[in-house]
């Protein structure tokens, strides 16, 4: 309580303390500026990875039609994991910075004002990255599909697999993956529709939700004894009804808990082999011409996926331009005969379809 403002020694101590606080303030602001710069670079990397992921999804869609394209995920998995590791390290650093004001603080301390904002921005970036990183690695396919995925037969086994491209997880947290089919028509997925995601001893094994030996059984409508198509399904044939399977994964790591979700490409369910050719033609036509096939890959969490799938595509299917159809026909031949169609072959087919010019 003494007035020591005239004490020279006390004045020197105050000046020394003010100098230390100025240095501390400058260092804290420099650290926060560097963190902001790293977040900006991370957003640029995230946008780049998103472009690469969309290119991979387009290649996968073409591969389902027989195109000879590379659909390996290892490069993307490595890039996503590296960025995820860096972001989680930044999150730890930000949380440590957020604890510093409890030890030393002062008026207009930048850590108090800016750290929460940076942490929120970083968590949003991590959330976007993780949700994008959950993808369908293997689209629904039967074992003897004759290179025709996305056509499933009731009471026949099929498989599908999803992968989380960020190979980071808390081994003390039980990660459960679940699958469910849309409700356009009422089907039950037999066998197990949930799995506990397990990894091998090596992180290189990846984080995979592998569902094998699944079968579909149509529920019967108690009123008519036949399968119900649901409300507003319309007069579409069975071979033109599009369905989705959605994977959900309860994810936790580094204090972040999320529910991740991804969906397959649209597929068709048949009940006998006589419907296979018509169903496959529908799959070809939809994937060639659907105006927004990606909408079915990343729907928001909702009880029904109906708004995110073009269910009325076949009510009035668009025409296919010949160059696009010719390309897909060539892929089909190449997928079974290891060589595509030549220009003369395609010209002959065009004359068969359209007549001579």
TrEMBL record:
Subcellular location: Cytoplasm; Nucleus
GO terms, molecular function: DNA binding; DNA-binding transcription factor activity
Coiled-coil ranges from the UniProt annotation: 14-59
GO cellular component terms given for this protein: cytoplasm; nucleus
InterPro entries: p53-like_TF_DNA-bd_sf, STAT, STAT_linker, STAT_TF_alpha, STAT_TF_CC, STAT_TF_DNA-bd, STAT_TF_DNA-bd_N
Keywords: Coiled coil, Cytoplasm, DNA-binding, Nucleus, Phosphoprotein, SH2 domain, Transcription, Transcription regulation
UniProt domain Signal transducer and activator of transcription linker: residue ranges: 311-356
Gene3D superfamilies xrefs: EF-hand (1.10.238.10), STAT transcription factor, all-alpha domain (1.20.1050.20), STAT transcription factor, DNA-binding domain (2.60.40.630)
Domain STAT transcription factor all-alpha, first and last residues per copy: 6-126
Pfam family name, one: STAT_bind
Gene Ontology terms: biological process: signal transduction
Main location: cytoplasm
Domain STAT transcription factor DNA-binding: 139-270
This protein's name: STAT2 protein
Species whose genome carries this gene: Atlantisia rogersi
């Amino acid at each position: 309580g003494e007035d020591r403002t005239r004490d020279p020694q006390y004045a020197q101590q105050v000046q020394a303390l003010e100098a230390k606080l100025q240095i501390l303030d400058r260092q804290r602001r420099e650290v926060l500026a560097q963190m902001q710069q790293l977040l900006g670079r991370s957003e640029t990397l995230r946008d780049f990875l998103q472009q690469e992921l969309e290119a991979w999804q387009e290649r996968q869609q073409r591969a389902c039609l027989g195109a000879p394209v590379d659909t390996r995920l290892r490069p993307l998995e490595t890039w996503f994991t590296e960025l995820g590791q860096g972001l989680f390290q930044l999150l730890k650093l930000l949380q440590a910075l957020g604890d510093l004001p409890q030890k030393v603080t002062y008026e207009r301390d930048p850590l108090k004002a800016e750290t929460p904002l940076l942490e929120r921005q970083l968590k949003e970036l991590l959330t976007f990255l993780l949700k994008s990183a959950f993808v369908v690695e293997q689209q629904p396919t039967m074992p003897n599909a004759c290179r025709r995925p996305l056509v499933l037969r009731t009471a026949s086994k099929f498989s599908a697999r999803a992968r989380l491209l960020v190979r980071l997880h808390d081994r003390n947290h039980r990660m459960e993956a679940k699958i469910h089919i849309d409700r356009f028509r009422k089907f039950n997925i037999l066998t197990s529709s949930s799995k506990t995601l397990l990894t091998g001893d090596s992180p290189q094994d990846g984080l995979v939700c592998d569902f094998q030996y699944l079968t579909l059984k149509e529920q019967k409508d108690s009123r008519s004894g036949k399968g119900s198509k649901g409300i507003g399904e319309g007069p579409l044939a069975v071979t033109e009804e599009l369905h989705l399977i959605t994977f959900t994964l309860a994810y936790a790591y580094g204090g972040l808990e999320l529910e991740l979700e991804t969906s397959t490409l649209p597929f068709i369910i048949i009940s006998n082999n006589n419907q296979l050719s018509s169903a496959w033609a529908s799959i070809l036509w939809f994937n060639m011409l659907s105006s927004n096939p990606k909408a079915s890959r990343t729907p928001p969490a909702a009880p029904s996926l109906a708004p995110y799938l073009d269910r009325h595509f076949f009510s009035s299917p668009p025409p296919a331009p010949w160059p696009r159809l010719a390309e897909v026909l060539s892929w089909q031949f190449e997928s079974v005969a290891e060589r595509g169609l030549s220009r003369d072959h395609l010209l002959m087919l065009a004359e068969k379809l359209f007549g001579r010019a």
